[in-house]
């Protein structure tokens, strides 16, 4: 059974990992996205995430159910609020019968989450504030 959430509290990565453990699964793959200081030449001081929570949870649930229908267990939590450098912003974990599936499905989930789940990022950089991070033209 999946676990998905939007949280305004720090993510307890160990507790989230524990939700994936089960004798039925031989592979567990976890992605934990943290706030980084540098994106190319841009220095970030902190981030603020906001979400349309009802829709975000609905989309996370759809994604989790899609992967769990293939025989896996899924845990996905995205943080909202003000985050400092090195804080965990997102946790995606997949437990599957075999490691190859776990890797494949974890990558699919984080990539799709970033496209479909209504979570917005406001970057407080040393030079200015950016919504959603740097763009291709540097604005």
TrEMBL record:
<dbReference type="GO" id="GO:0006777">
    <property type="term" value="P:Mo-molybdopterin cofactor biosynthetic process"/>
</dbReference>
<dbReference type="Pfam" id="PF02391">
    <property type="entry name" value="MoaE"/>
</dbReference>
<dbReference type="InterPro" id="IPR036563">
    <property type="entry name" value="MoaE_sf"/>
</dbReference>
<protein>
    <submittedName>
        <fullName>Molybdopterin biosynthesis protein, E chain</fullName>
    </submittedName>
</protein>
<dbReference type="InterPro" id="IPR003448">
    <property type="entry name" value="Mopterin_biosynth_MoaE"/>
</dbReference>
């Amino acid at each position: 059974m999946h676990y998905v959430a939007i949280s305004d509290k720090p993510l307890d990565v160990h507790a989230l990992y524990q939700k994936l453990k089960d004798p039925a699964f031989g592979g567990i793959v976890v992605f934990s996205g943290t706030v980084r200081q540098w994106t190319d030449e841009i220095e970030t001081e902190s981030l603020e995430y906001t979400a349309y929570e009802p829709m975000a949870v609905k989309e996370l649930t759809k994604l989790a159910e899609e992967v769990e229908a293939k025989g896996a267990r899924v845990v996905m939590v995205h943080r909202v609020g003000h985050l400092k450098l090195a804080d965990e912003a997102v946790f995606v974990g997949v437990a599957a019968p075999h490691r190859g599936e776990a890797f494949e499905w974890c990558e699919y989930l984080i990539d799709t989450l970033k496209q479909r789940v209504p979570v917005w990022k406001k970057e407080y950089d040393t030079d200015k504030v950016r919504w959603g991070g740097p763009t291709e033209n540097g604005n």
